Amino acid sequence: MGEFRTHSQLIEAALKRCNVRPEEKAVMLSSRIIDPADLAPYEEALRRTSDHVISVRYHPMEVTDAHHMNDMLLAAMQQADFVLHYRGGTFPTPFAQLTAHSRGIPEVAASSTRWLDICLNEANQFRLHPSDEIVAEAMEAARLMERTNEIHLTSDGGTDLVLRKDGRKGHRQLGLADKPGIWDNFGFAMVACAPLENSANGVVVVEPGDAMLQMGATVRDPITLRVEDGRIVKIEGGESATALSQWLERWQDPESYGVSHIGWGLHPNAVWTGSPRFTPVDGESYRGSILIAFGSNTTDMPARHSGIGGTRHCVSHLDVPLLSHSFAVDGVPVVKSGKIV
Ligand SMILES: [Fe+2]
């Protein structure tokens, strides 16, 4: 991508990179809670790219933290070649929207539909849109993740966690829904996998300045997570540990404590907590950070590097980005103390 004079030019370039063509059926999808006026640049870009655009607004159908598709919405999206889903510029939003973990997303992808989420405001889209270098690096990282069997996470702060992923996918997330059956999210640059559900053993020390994204919280004092056979069995620490314990408890689901996915961030323009520009997209994409998550991990798409394909069904999902960690795959370091090797 080169220089863009307008916002809709940036979106148009993103759509062209996703191979949206004039003959394709494209959907502009949004929750009815999003202000329709905010959709103008996206609709403009979509209409310049495809000759067959419809706009669909969904109403909240289930008032829970996770939003799922009803059968009518699912059937409509399965008819599309390409879906552009605008989630507003202030993710996470105080209302439920469709996410990668929603029922319906894998079913839509299974119909060969390509799906691109956008959950950043205009300024952050300009900051985080993927360069050719990021695309190439993330694809290479996804191939490395795919062929990895064992993961070792460590830190000077006391983390020492071993996980197995034999046979699981290498998922890449970089805003490129260019092949049939891909779900992606614009502005991200990260790779992830779902480790085997009972494989993680050891300790994770979450440090001040790390984040618990769905809780909307920055960690204030160290949290020690003891993990046995894939699940957190003990949470130790102070104020932040208590907040985490309470959040996990409220779902009343033992799977909330299970490891969901793990991987690393690649985006050179992402910022960390404490920056006024910080968004959850930054937290998941910050170059050299590690993202570990707990809860659901079943989302999967037909495309080779899209989705994680675990077996942990769970009502909750919590993403925890970690700075200053080291990450090795089959004994080979890829991140050392927060820096890409
Ligand atoms: Fe996640």
UniProtKB/TrEMBL annotation:
Keywords, sorted A to Z:
Metal-binding
Q: Which GO terms describe its molecular function?
A: metal ion binding
Taxonomically, the superkingdom here is Bacteria
Any single Pfam family the record assigns to this protein? NicX
SUPFAM superfamilies for the chain: Thermophilic metalloprotease-like (SSF144052)
Q: What is this protein called?
A: Leucyl aminopeptidase
Q: Which organism is it from?
A: Streptosporangium carneum
